[in-house]
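Chapter summary example.
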Amino acid sequence: MKRIIITLTVLIILPVYAYSGQIGVMAPAFDLASMNNTVVTLEQFKGKVVFLNFWAPWCIPCKQEMPELEKLYRKYSKDGFEVVGVCVETNPTAVQQFLKKTPVTFSILIDNKGAVADVYRISSLPSGLIIGRDGIIRHRHRGFGKEVLTLYEKEISTLLKQ
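The structure predicted for these 162 residues follows.
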């Protein structure tokens, strides 16, 4: 009986867990509208190291993190690094106002129904996933504090060298 339960767990639960954006698995594909209403897919960033950042304009740690992600993007973009901000806010005016106060040059996508956040099992903001050039999720982060910047940079630079 115990063996049957373990087998069922492996066959049913692990694939769902693996698909949900966990470390060591292929990042789930998505397509979302950008701020200028063009459709952007994760596939467009294939071959690059991607920091997939889930955020909202009302999130205080997100406000602190966005300028830091912009600095990382400017520093490493020439080496094949992308930051993709996935905003889970449903009010486009709030997003626009936030971006006026905190401008960024990386892609901002709108997940107003939360479908992509659900697939990646995002439970807190900000949340970030670092995806390798091969499309595999290599690192997952929740929350933000200045102390994690060194870790972000180390993880990003290591993946860029691969």
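To summarize the output: The radius of gyration is 16 Å.
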